[in-house]
Design goal:
Length: 276
Amino acid sequence: MNTFYSLVKISTNISTGDSVAVGLVFSDGKNCLYFFSDKKKKLAYKLLRAESSDMDIDFFVNQIIANCTNQEVFEQEYFTYLSNYCNGLLQFSAPNPVAAPFNEETLEFLVKMTFSESIYKEEKKNKTEEENKQAKKAAFKKQIQAHLIEPLQDKIHTNYKFEPINLPIPFSFELDCIGKNGSLIGAKVEDFDSEKRTLNRHLSNYLAFISTVSNKYNIPLSENSFFWIAEEPKLDTKKHSLWETARQNPLIKLIEPSEVEQIVELVERKQATRFL
């Protein structure tokens, strides 16, 4: 196995032999993977400032990356040559053999061992955060489907969209459920991960819808039961101030997803049905 890695170093003081390792090249003699540390590059720039103010480390880094397509450049013998004769600003360590597969997992291990960093950096962090966010949304949707929509889909309207053509509102509006038996019972799910201006618009539209539909069926606002289903946002945020505003509004009742069973119970108790 010819798998090896070589540290890429920037000489910060040629006379004293001081240098900073800014990255590494990992190769099996035919292919290469690489990593360069932004932190170490910044350190090298800082140390080089007294020596040269116009030194462009990124130029050297980009040259190395560009050469990754050249198989001959990444043979072990070539890095042995570089380690012996490249004694200027850009330097390379002698090839270090690696008794592990040539893949990203091994590169990640080498980078953590050498630089205490990750090859994935913010990209992996952001990806993980996005995956967690999507998983949370999926669980939220599944919970609403199982505990609200499915128990009511044969009793009242579910996932029903009102259009300006059948209700005098200047926008389309979808409710997760709505039924009627003398008074109206309805509910809408809200994702508080949305931007605050979006949430403001959704709340305004919901309140306008409630007033309009109540007027159409000649039902006093106080007799209806409309719910806004959402997870409470973090305290001391602008979104939480909107949450509080909604919670204090007499036209709607703000509840958590875990509380949707009370809507099902209310529909069953009042024997609400479809009416559209």
